[in-house]
């Protein structure tokens, strides 16, 4: 897998915005990616030094909708989330700095 297949997109939420100033960034990544794969991908794409990577698998939420024919139940997709911490002497990621 190349780096752009591993890192799918940044995850932007209130909690992730609060950690940008501490050089902690959150991404949605490929389900089969390991911590080492994620570290290499972030270093390659953004040209930064990664200190640590934490990952977690997020289960999709069940959603219900009432229609004329009855109740329809669906589910959002499961995904893997990576929380990447940069080294203190590393430069920040420019994409996230423009948001804060």
Explain what the structure shows.
- With 100 residues, the protein is α+β, with helices and mostly antiparallel strands.
- The chain contains four helices and six strands.
- It has helices at 3-6, 14-19, 35-46, 94-97, and strands spanning 7-10, 24-29, 50-58, 62-67, 70-75, 79-86.
- It is elongated, with a radius of gyration of 17 Å.
- The mean pLDDT is 93.
Task: Please name the defining characteristics of this protein.
single chain, 100 residues, alpha+beta, two-stranded antiparallel sheet, elongated
Largest sheet: 4 strands, antiparallel
Question: How many E-type strands?
Answer: 6
* Low-pLDDT regions: none
Mean pLDDT: 93
Strand sequence of the main sheet, in spatial order? 1-2-6-3
> How helical, in percent, are the residues?
25-40%
Q: Compute the separation of the termini in Å.
A: 31 Å
| Number of alpha- plus pi-helical segments | 4
- Tell me the strand percentage band: 35-45%
Shape: elongated
Instruction: Please trace the helix and strand order, writing H or E for each element.
Output: HEHEHEEEEH
Query: What is the structural class?
Result: alpha+beta
Taking all Cα atoms into account, the compactness measure Rg is 17 Å
Concise structural overview:
By secondary structure, this protein is α+β, with helices and mostly antiparallel strands. It has helices at residues 3-6, 14-19, 35-46, 94-97, and strands spanning 7-10, 24-29, 50-58, 62-67, 70-75, 79-86.
């Amino acid at each position: 897998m190349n780096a752009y297949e591993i890192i799918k997109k940044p995850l932007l939420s209130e909690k992730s915005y609060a950690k940008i100033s501490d050089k902690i960034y959150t991404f949605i990544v490929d389900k089969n990616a390991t911590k080492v794969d994620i570290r290499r991908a972030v270093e390659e794409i953004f040209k930064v030094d990664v200190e640590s990577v934490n990952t977690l698998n997020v289960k999709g939420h069940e959603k219900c909708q009432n229609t004329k024919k009855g109740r329809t139940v669906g589910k959002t997709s499961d995904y893997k989330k990576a929380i990447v911490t940069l080294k203190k002497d590393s430069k920040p990621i420019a994409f996230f700095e423009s948001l804060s």
